[in-house]
Design goal:
Blueprint (H helix, E strand, L loop, with lengths): L5 H8 L9 E4 L6 E5 L2 H4 L18 H7 L3 H4 L1 E5 L2 E5 L4 H6 L7 E4 L21 E6 L3 E6 H16 L4 H5 L4 H10 L2 H10 L3 H9 L1
Parallel strand pairs: 5-6
Antiparallel strand pairs: 1-2, 3-4, 3-5, 6-7
This protein binds zinc ion (ZN).
Zinc ion binds next to helix 3.
Length: 209
């Protein structure tokens, strides 16, 4: 199987024209060896802050350069594989997480469109649709396990059905909710929800619902 990277997927999924230069070496973003790379200072701006995620290297390869020059890599949410770019918004984000594209694939969810939280994930392309790594701007890398996600989703839907807010699902219940739970007999549901909090996958699923 050919080794692929996040930037190769990102460019190929959109059939982008790859912008080539002439710097040789290994890429500081994805570690790929290239003879058609770019100087690093031509690739990132002066206010670039994600240096700690980068590898040793001499250049930015042509694929990482082309990806990083596209603001949509940061601003938008997407699911990508070698032939398909799926734009993600709030109407399809949960469905895509449960049904990702055919491997190899990668999924990124932007929340404010400011941070490139996949900067350390160039070599974390996924080959399983059931257990995989995706990134979300608010949390960074999150590990998806479909069995756990299904259990979480049932609890979240049950909570929303009882009129709990998303803040209650992730932080603390209102007094009124406890009163309702006693009256309508769903204290056990609150206990189960409580035990899932402070978990990235839980928080992302609450967001995605
Ligand atoms: Zn690269």
């Amino acid at each position: 199987m050919d080794i692929t990277t996040l930037s190769i997927l990102f460019c190929n999924s959109q059939k982008k024209e790859i912008q080539k230069s002439n710097i040789s070496g290994s890429c500081i973003f994805c570690s790929r060896e290239t003879a058609e790379g770019w100087k690093v200072d031509k690739t990132v701006s002066n206010n670039f802050t994600a240096w700690s995620n980068l590898s040793d290297g001499q250049c930015a390869c042509e694929y990482c350069y082309t990806m990083l020059k596209d603001p949509n890599c940061r601003r938008r949410s997407w699911a990508i594989n070698p032939t398909e770019y799926i734009a993600i918004d709030k109407t399809n984000r949960k469905q895509i997480l449960f049904n990702p594209p055919e491997p190899p694939f990668f999924i990124h969810l932007a929340t404010s469109g400011q941070k490139q939280t996949w900067m350390g994930s160039f070599n974390k392309i996924n080959y399983s649709k059931n257990k995989y790594i995706f990134t979300i701007e608010s949390h960074g890398e999150v590990f998806w396990d479909i069995a756990i996600a299904k259990d979480y989703d049932k609890l979240i839907l049950a909570g929303l059905e009882k009129k709990l807010t998303k803040t209650e699902l992730t932080q603390v219940f209102k007094l009124k909710t406890y009163e309702n739970a006693i009256k309508d007999n769903f204290l056990d549901l609150l206990k189960q929800i409580e035990s899932c909090r402070r978990n990235r996958l839980w928080e992302v699923l609450v967001y995605a619902n």
